[in-house]
Amino acid sequence: MDAAAHEITPPEGAPVKDLDVRPLLAAGTEPFGAIMEAVETLGQGEVLVLRAPFDPRPLHNVLGKRGFAKVSRELAPDDWEVRYWRPEVLLDVRGLEPPEPMERTLAALEELPAGAVLLHVNDRVPAFLLPELDDRGFTYTIDRDDRGVLVRITAGAPS
Questions:
Q1: Domains and CATH numbers, the chain
Q2: Kindly report the CA angle at 56 between 72 and 50, in degrees rounded to 5?
Q3: How do residues 100-113 score in pLDDT, each as one tens digit?
């Protein structure tokens, strides 16, 4: 579903990285490199807060193809704030019998944009899924919380 089709917001309380490109633009410097450097250093769950003199719509497209969601708002004339973050797509496979959790996960990953994160919630560590993820170039982390085993799977960077 297109992020613009419904109201989305960054995760509450997420750590932020601020980048104000207004001084760069005022000095005649192209800010794209600084923006992409800030994006590349974002950790999982972090939000980039970009300040610009306009709503950077072409940047929305570039980062959208890399799996980022965004919300923008005009603070004043020539002062926009745009927040970019990688949303997590939740896939709860608890209670399903093998091979259904793996099949659902691999199907969901086919639709996942590069850079986006699939949060796979399971009753147990998906031992047979992990080699498949490795073979297909996905990165992942495994954690536990009160829901069970959490596997955060990240699609590879776009080419």
A1: 3-85 (3.30.110), 88-154 (3.30.110.40)
A2: 60
A3: 999 999 999 998 87
